[in-house]
Amino acid sequence: MFSKRRCLQLLPVVLLLASSCVSYREQKLREFQVAPLFGMVYDYEQKPCQAAAILVDGEQRAQTDINGRFVIGDLSRGEHRIGVRKPGFEDLEVSVQFLNRDQILYLRVISLRQLLEQAENALGKKRLAETVALLARAERIDAGDPVELYLKALYLLETGAAREAAEVLESLVGSGHREAILYLSLADIYEHRLRDAPRAASFLRAYLELQNDPEVQARLEALTAGE
Predict the structure, then answer these.
(1) Residue 47, phi then psi, degrees to nearest 5
(2) Is 112-223 in CATH node 3.40.50.720?
(3) What is the pLDDT of residues 26-53, one digit of tens each?
């Protein structure tokens, strides 16, 4: 049997061997020309992003599965530009140094809905510079999105551009959107910001065609009492 003294004498040798094994493993992981790169794409709610195209140096090389996972096969060692593309999401492109075989790449993308939620939150807190930056990003994903346009109109109101806000909302109505909130918002702008009672009354009437609202009915009657 080994004595305690003998074990203590062997301990440095054992540690050296273990250290050598770890160093050898790390060396093998780093010594390669091509290898697969594994990764995962998820959104700002930590949910996997399915069916997203994965680009390597501008060329599509993979697509995420139902769990947001992907594999780029035979990727050369070194630096690459990795991109993510999916309709309804903001494009993402990052620079990646692929230097280790067991490297896993985690990428986070943001959807149009999530951008608009952030913009709405920023607007509610009067962070106008942040709001306009978020809306610009949302517009690049879908320039005609009705929620983005409605938030843009609210932003314009906050900056004192009432007529421009009305034009944005009227463009939504003109493109076929018939939500009651659009008519009520336009009535508010024309009555209180632009001082155009007849125009405000027309939008109140349009609102009442969609909503049975006694308060708005009374407001319309008061607004048109002098006609």
Answers:
(1) -100, 140
(2) no
(3) 555 567 789 999 999 999 999 999 999 9
